[in-house]
Design a protein that fits this description.
Blueprint lengths: L1 E2 L5 E2 L8 H37 L10 H49 L12 H9 L9 H17 L2 H15 L3 E3 L7 H7 L4 H8 L8 H4 L2 E7 L4 H4 L13 H16 L6 E4 L3 H14 L6 E3 L16 H8 L1 H9 L15 H5 L20 H21 L4 E5 L1 H12 L16 E6 L10 E3 L2 H13 L9
The structure holds (2R)-2,3-diphosphoglyceric acid (DG2).
(2R)-2,3-diphosphoglyceric acid (DG2) binds next to helix 9 and helix 16.
Length: about 475
């Protein structure tokens, strides 16, 4: 029995072909389809090779002058740009089509009867009377609704025709306008094609965000959570240019001012925290207190964990960076400080700060036994010890709707940024965070950033502060 459109039960007509014949035909069709698919696959491979050989003829470098090589490089860059643009255009079309397919499937689902339509009676009412019933006395004013509809349609069509790159350019203007207060990585405000370069580590994600003309205007809608990362205010040893790491140092006078100022700025913008996380080092806790105090949000719960501690700098702890640069070279110091997988020599019992660190009661409260705590760490190892805490403790808070502030350290924040933004091992070398500057990350429901991080505050000052941190690893000119 089946049900026809009128709702009556009707007898199913007997099929004209036997079951075995049907099976035979089905198998034949499937076989044919699989052969066709195979052929299509082979054609695609041949087509791919043809296009590649057309677009990428083997490089002839021998005998070329410097000038020729430079021209060749420029030409290759131009081609890469072209391919990039094409890729984003295709990605945007795919995303748009996928969305349309999803919408249509939804409509089909609805039409299939999941949504029951009410029984409607046919009535004869004039348009005038209908408007009167709907709008009351206002219908007189809106009588020109046809003309209005036309205008709306025209506008909609116009919006559809807009090139997605223009939307991104428009967004850049939005960012530019705000860049005095909301810091953006230098160079972000640029043409769409160069955005992908800055976000190269996760360009696929970005192609979906920025590459789709229908999605571009929705970028701000997709932001579901706000997360703030903060490197504590200047510590006493930051000022002396010594590797501080797991040595517990308080904020310098300037660090206290930085933390208070940070709180004032966040308050001015109306941010409200639901949870704060810090390391177990005083400079990060003290910073969190001062920020919350300046915001009048002292009551917000603070949770501390060693897993947010600064990277363990091993035997380098206590040493002066500029002196290290003089003795070991600036390159080596940069590798120690910023390399992703570079581990400094471990600290041992003969180190002047060993006892102070490992006899400290705070390290008996950790979720690992004291003798399993690190003796040195690369940034990669920081991320390894931080991730379980992030996933198990911080993520649930964010997902439950809390706006979270993580008041931590230069390298624990860099590790987290690397994870969240998908920064590559090589690109993370170029990320430096100044003290006391909040970094705002806007995340989607899966905690993926929906736009570039924003360093909040005066951009000129922030750039100067970043340079100052980078220069800490250079030889002091006076001592050369
Ligand atoms: O350990 C330290 O001295 C600095 C980081 O030093 P660099 O990685 O910048 O050398 O950590 P923080 O001041 O953020 O706690």
């Amino acid at each position: 029995m089946a049900i026809n459109v009128t709702g009556f039960r009707v007898k199913k007509p007997k099929p004209k072909i036997s079951a075995s014949r049907r099976l035979y035909l089905k198998t034949k069709i499937l076989k044919k389809a699989s052969t066709l698919l195979e052929e299509e696959k082979k054609e695609k491979v041949i087509e791919r090779e043809r296009i590649l050989s057309e677009r990428l003829p083997p490089l002839q470098l021998s005998g070329l002058s410097l000038q020729d090589l430079q021209t060749l490089c420029k030409e290759l860059h131009r081609k890469i740009d072209g391919v990039d643009d094409d890729r984003y255009n295709v990605a945007s079309k795919v995303a748009k089509n996928e969305k349309e397919v999803a919408d249509l499937s939804h409509k089909i689902f609805e039409l299939k009867g999941k949504m029951k339509r009410p029984n409607l009676k046919r009535v004869r009412v004039s348009a005038e009377a209908m408007l009167g019933a709907l709008l009351g006395s206002r219908h007189k004013e809106s009588i020109d609704f046809k003309a209005n509809l036309k205008t709306v349609k025209k506008e909609e069509e116009k919006r559809e025709d807009t090139d997605w790159r223009k939307n991104v350019d428009a967004m850049s203007v939005h960012y530019m306008r705000h860049s005095s207060t909301f810091g953006i990585e230098p160079g972000f405000v640029a043409r769409a094609s160069s955005i992908s370069r800055i976000w190269r580590p996760d360009s696929h994600r970005l192609s979906v965000l920025f590459g789709c003309r229908t999605l571009v205007p929705q970028i701000f809608l997709m932001s579901k959570h706000k997360l703030f990362l903060l490197r504590h205010g200047e510590g006493a040893w930051n000022k002396e240019n010594r590797f501080c790491s797991w040595v517990d140092q308080k904020l310098s006078e300037n660090g206290v001012l930085e933390a208070k100022e940070c709180g004032r700025m966040l308050k001015q913008h109306g941010y409200e925290f639901g949870r704060v996380f810090t390391s177990i080092l005083s400079r990060s806790v003290q910073t969190a207190w001062l920020v919350l105090e300046s915001m009048g949000q002292e009551w917000v719960p603070i949770t501390k964990s060693w897993r947010l501690n600064e990277r363990h700098y091993g035997a380098l702890i206590g040493l002066n960076r500029a002196e290290m640069a003089l003795n070991h070279g600036e390159e080596q110091v940069k590798l120690w400080r910023r390399g992703y997988d570079v581990t400094p020599p471990p600290i041992d019992e003969s180190h002047p700060y060993y006892a102070q660190i490992y006899n400290d009661r705070r390290y008996t409260t950790c979720d690992v036994p004291k003798d399993e705590l690190p003796k040195t760490e690369s940034l990669k190892e920081v991320l390894d010890r931080l991730l379980p805490y992030w996933n198990d403790v911080i993520v649930p808070e964010i997902k439950s709707g809390q706006t979270v502030l993580i008041s931590a350290h230069g390298n624990s924040c860099r590790a987290l940024l690397k994870h969240l933004e998908g920064i590559s091992d090589t690109d993370i070398v170029n990320v430096t965070l100044p003290t006391g500057v909040p970094v705002l990350l806007e995340l989607d429901e899966n905690l993926r950033p929906v736009k570039p991080r924003e360093l909040l505050g005066d951009q000129a000052k922030i750039q100067a502060a970043i340079k100052k941190v980078e220069d800490q690893g250079k030889v002091d000119e006076g001592k050369k």
